[in-house]
Every structure is written in C-alpha cells, then in structure tokens.
Amino acid sequence: MASSAVAKRPLRVLCCSGSLEGGGSERQLWQLASKLDRQRFSPSVYLLYRRGHYIEQLPEDVGVTAFWSEFDEGQRYWPGQIRRMQVRHLAKAFRDLKIDVVYDRTFHMTLVTAAAATRARVPRVSVIVSPPSADFQKSREGFRYFKKRLLAAAYRQPGCVTIAVSDEVADDAAAFYGVNRSLIRVLPNPVDLELVQALAQRTDSSYSSIASGTRIIVVGRLSREKGQRLALEALQVANSRSDKHIHLDVVGDGPDRAELERTAQRLGIGELVTFHGFVSNPYPMIQKSHLLCIPSEYEGLPNVALEAMVLGTAVVATDCSGSLRTLIGDNERGVLVPQGSAEALAQVFVADILESSEFERRRTQALQWVAQHHGLPAWLGEMETTLSSVVKPPFDKFALELD
Predict the structure, then answer these.
(1) Whose CA is closest to 356, among 293, 290, 309?
(2) Residue 119 contacts residue 158 (beta carbons within 8 Å)
C-alpha cells in the first residue's frame, strides 16, 4: 500500500464487534465509528450478528456488514468451521471495502480479525477490555489452549497495536499471554459527559419512583461474573436490619436472568427487586438512584461507573479491579468493599450516603476526575493518532499462520 495513495483520501477504518448491543465495548465502538473526523477517516462497521440498538444510532455514512446475515445460523457446522468461515468472510470484506485499518474490541473478535487481517495484509488495532486471567480463563470458550496461543501471537504481531483500558489490564495481559509489556499501550475508556447528562434529562416510563427509601441500581449483563446474585444477598441482609425501604433495580439482560429472579423470590425480597431487562437509555434511572452498585467478580474499567460519576450518583463496588481502585481512589470518589462480601455491601446499602457530609465532596471529586481523565475528545484524539500511525508501508505479513 503506497503512503501517497492513502494520503489522497480519508483512511477507511473497519470497526469490528460481535454485535452492537448495549455493553460497554459496543458503546465505545459505536462512539468511535460515529465521532471519527470525517476529513481524515471513513468508518464502517463489521458485526458477527446484525443486532443491537446502536445500529440504528450509527450515522448514515457508516455502512454495516454482518456475517450471520449471509449464512444459515441454524445449520450444523464442524468444530472450528464457523471461525474459518468468519475469517474468510471478513478478509473478503477488507478487500471489497478497500479497508486501510481494522479496529476491534474484546478477545472474541480479535480471534477473527487477527487471522483475517493477516490474509488481507491490513494493519490492526485491538483493545483488551478486561484482565484475561479472569475474563478469558473463566470464559466458556472451547479450545482455550489453542485460542490463547493465537491471541498471544496476535498481540505480538508487528505492524499492529494492542491497547488495554488500564495499566492493571495491560499488566495482566502481558503476564497471561507472555507478551512484552512495552507492546501494550494504555488508553482508558472515555465517557461523553455532555451526551450522558443530556440523556439523563429524558423521561423513562419504565422507571417508577418510590415515595421514600433508598434506590440502588445495578447495570450490566446478567451473568455470573457480574455478581448480581451478591447484590441480591446484600439487599436481603440490609432490609432485615433496617427500617428503611431499600429497593434494587436490575438493568440488563443475559443468561442468568431467570435464576436471579428465582433467587430474589427465595430470599424473600421479590417485591423489593425490579428486573427491567435491557434499557436503551438507563441514564435517567442512574441519576435518580441513590447508589450504583458494581458487585462484579472481576472488571476492566466499567463504563457505567464513569457514567454514574458524571450524573452525581454515588458508586459502591467490590474490590475486583485495579482499574476501579484507581478510579475510586482511597474512597475519595466512591466506596470499595471486599470482594464477595454481602455483609460489607449491606452496610453501605443502609448507610445515610445522601445525608453524609462526605457525599458532596465525593460527588464533586468524582465528576472532576472523570472529566480530566476520561473525556471523549482526548480519547478520540489518541485513537485517531493510533489508527493513522499503523497505516504506513511496508506492512509485512508476520510469519506465524493464524488461520
């Protein structure tokens, strides 16, 4: 690829994701595709599944290609056949769209993009969003030993860039994959302060107010690692010890929803828990809540914590992430509790957070921290520089065969 040819037109960037549903990674990818400087970049999106509410929010100039829109999802395939089909399909999309650089988030997508980019000789920027010693190791992926080797090779690939959302995630990834730490750049997740604050002002009929008491909200995929069960147990303990009316709003969907609903009934707190399912605009609910609870087993840098801080909602989280420790500080911008402790969470649930003289100080410091360290303009500038930097000749195909 000649540098002079690239300079005559905007760089064609293909943003790759499994879908564009409501997770933090999907939101970051949507932000990138929507906000890139159109004088310098021409973005499009590649999905495995054409679904998710962010598809409808993409600008008109962002085209979408989806793998399963062209294949029969109900057909039976041999082990490994689907990935090979996805690699071929994505490599063809690179050629058809004349892509200059590919961007992906999450290890699931990197497993496909790394092999396809090698075939098409396209440079790649990949983002690691969670510590792989927990995220990859505890996943339900088949052939994990083989896939771990593929990912390690992808993150070492010359001419490509690996980004982690925090120093802690970068350190964990380097150790887990055996990659030189200097090869992994750190770029924290951004939050669009103005957009989040504007969306919070919209009414949401799915949120019913309670006349008195404490309202706690948990936002995220309903799956084991997100820890909603711990929040339910803490709610049961808190309500058994307090005359306050403490209600828990669970926002999100996932494979554990039915089990969590049964758990709430078994604990005798069914009337105190509302399962809202997926909510396209959760910000009015977050802003009206007294507490955002993050009860996870592990995290990278959860976007919802940043968004709650922007909206002035107090954050309590399990001590499951070095990134959260940095974000919250020494309980300066929120509260950390021991991981897996329903008792410690319950104590925070019954605390008079809004009555505390510390609340206003924490809220002010949290907003200032997010604005300074996680502003969207700075992140976009770094991403645009990174995407431009990898598109330079020669891009040599690395020796290890990835597909």
Answers:
(1) 290
(2) no
**Beta strands 161-164 and 101-105, pairing class:** unpaired
CA distances from 235 to 196, 214, 285 (A): 28, 11, 18
Q: What angle do CA 333, 336, 342 make, to 5 degrees?
A: 145
User: How many angstroms separate the CA atoms of 403 and 394, rounded?
Assistant: 22
Residue 207 backbone dihedrals phi, psi, to 5 degrees: -105, 110
Please give the sequence-ordered ranges of beta strands (E in DSSP) within 108-231, or none if there are none.
124-128, 161-164, 184-186, 214-219
**Alpha-carbon gap, residue 188 to 210, rounded angstroms:** 36
Indicate if the alpha-carbon torsion angle 217, 221, 227, 230 is positive or negative.
Answer: positive
* 273-277, strands of its sheet edge to edge: 273-277, 246-251, 214-219, 291-294, 314-318, 335-337
Q: What residue ranges in 18-71 does DSSP mark as E strands? A: 41-47, 64-66
- Which is nearest to 388 in space by CA: 12, 2, 8, 5? 12
| Angle in degrees, 0-180, between the axes of helices 376-390 and 24-35, rounded to the nearest 10 | 70
The answer to whether the CB of 299 falls within 8 A of the CB of 324 is yes
Residue 362 pLDDT class (50, 70, 90 cuts): confident
The sheet carrying 64-66 orders its strands as 64-66, 41-47, 11-17, 101-105, 124-128, 161-164, 184-186
pLDDT at residue 141 greater than cutoff 80: no
Q: What is the pLDDT of residue 1?
A: 44
Is there a cis peptide before residue 188, judged by omega within 30 degrees of 0? no
Going from the C-alpha of 184 to that of each of 7, 55, 167, 332, the distances in angstroms are 27, 30, 9, 29
Over residues 259-281, the pLDDT tens digits come to 999 999 999 999 999 999 989 89
Q: How far is CA 344 from CA 92, 237, 335, 337, in A?
A: 53, 10, 11, 6
Length of the chain in terms of residues written: 403
The confidence score (pLDDT) of residue 2 equals 43
Closest residue by Cα to residue 162 from 121, 95, 106: 106
